[in-house]
Amino acid sequence: MYRLVCVHCGENYAPDEIIYNCRRCGHLLAVQYDLDNIAVSRKEWDKRPLSVWRYREILPVTIDPVTLFEGGTPLYHLKTIGKELGLSQLYAKHEGMNPSGSFKDRGMTVGVSMALQLKKTHVACASTGNTSASLAVYAAKAGIPAVVLLPAGKVALGKVAQALMHGANVISIRGNFDKALEMVHDLCLSHGLYLLNSVNPYRLEGQKTIGFEAIDQLGGVPDRIVLPVGNAGNISAVHKGLNELIELGFIDRLPMMTGIQAAGSAPVVDAIQNNLPEVVPEKNPETVATAIRIGAPVNAEKALTAIRKTGGTAISVTDAEILRMQRDLARKEGVGVEPASAASVAGVRRLVEEGIIDRNERIVCVVTGHLLKDPETVIKQCEPPTEIDADLASLCSALHL
Ligand code: F0G
């Protein structure tokens, strides 16, 4: 009921071909369903629990999936920050509440299931951290080995801990993420491992369900969906999914797709702001938000289309703005996220200040990963605990009582 189609030239491939780039033009592939002949009903979906698998008719997996109950993440109304910004309808979809603590689990439940469906025995990825943690978790659940390549010294502690503990073969390369992705891609092509970065069209199918859930939770289409952008897979996936809902007649308009990058690591923003036909890679990307420290986003072509076709935009925020929003989300909303995730809400603050966001908009920010992913960046921003002698007088004195 589906095939692989090149996003650039439209060339078709069979769904069981292990292929990541079009043989004719080299661009990425996407999954295309025969939506006219798939029996899906909104009513049926509504009966199922909120999760990636609620939407299984428009996912590629036909076997029993490798699942740890991903998706079904909370959508929080950001009342305090919203009030400060004059936005009464500002929401955060907390993807940090997934099994491994990031949105990548939506992609990996589908991607690792597809590895089994396609009879692959080994999986691999390059990662700024979360993809590797998630792959390690789902490979463990599936009982197959995983290889993950990380940029040495640039991955947050919690993510490395997860990849190691869940039993992946963790390799640190002396180079950045873009180089690691190139290397793992070559490794997979030459040695037959199944590549589960966002060049894999099946993995992104899982991620598109973020948009589906947000609409189901809100009871309608938001005016704007705001996402942090690194390799640009997530924003592309959400846009693709929403187009499918349009085609199915389940919704009648698209939200303005809005991408936020960290200043110093913002090639998609440069392309949007300067109206370039394609991104110019940033050779030395740098930001405190290591998750999105990516200079050559492989899904940029699709992301530019998503942003341009929906009347959205892309802007960058500084590390200081990101960290300030991380603290605000934690302290004013009780929402603990990692720096890259705070970028989406920091981007909203900036867009309001610049007068680009209309205050009547209903906005969903995707906050992509949990606060505990990067404890070192958290600790650096906070005063250390007050250490005292173990008696009541010392306690009262420490509390100024
Ligand atoms: N937020 C977090 C927390 C991420 O880990 C990532 C990407 C993004 C946002 C950006 O998503 O790449 O689809 O535009 N992390 C990847 C990784 C690159 O390896 O974990 P994107």
CATH class of the domain at 75-101 and 203-381: Alpha Beta
Quick check: average pLDDT? Answer: 97
* CATH topology label of the domain at 75-101 and 203-381: Rossmann fold
Shape: globular
Number of helices: 15
Instruction: Summarize the biggest pleated sheet.
Output: 6 strands, mixed
CA(first)-CA(last) distance = 69 Å
Beta-strand proportion: 5-15%
Order of helices and strands: EEEHEHEHEHEHEHEHHEHEHHEHHEHH
Tell me the Rg in angstroms.
Answer: 21 Å
Structural class based on helices, strands and sheet pairing: alpha/beta
Uncertain stretches of 5 or more adjacent residues: none
Explain how this protein is built.
- The structure is a single chain.
- The chain is an alpha/beta fold and 401 residues long.
- The protein has a domain at 75-101 and 203-381: Rossmann fold.
- Helices cover 39% and strands 15% of the residues.
- It is built from 15 helices and 13 strands.
- The protein has helices at residues 42-47, 79-85, 104-117, 130-142, 157-165, 177-191, 201-207, 209-218, 233-247, 267-273, 300-309, 319-333, 339-353, 375-381, 392-398; strands at 2-6, 12-13, 29-33, 75-77, 90-94, 123-126, 146-151, 169-173, 194-195, 224-228, 256-262, 313-317, 363-367.
- The strands form three sheets. The protein has a six-stranded mixed sheet with strand order 4-5-13-10-11-12, sandwiched between helices. A four-stranded parallel sheet has the order 8-7-6-9.
- Helix 5 (157-165) links the parallel strand 7 and strand 8.
- Helix 3 (104-117) packs across helix 7 (201-207), helix 9 (233-247) packs across helix 11 and helix 12 packs across helix 13 (339-353).
- It is globular, with a radius of gyration of 21 Å.
- Ligand F0G binds at residues 102, 104, 127-131, 198, 228-234, 291-292, 338, 340-341, 368-369.
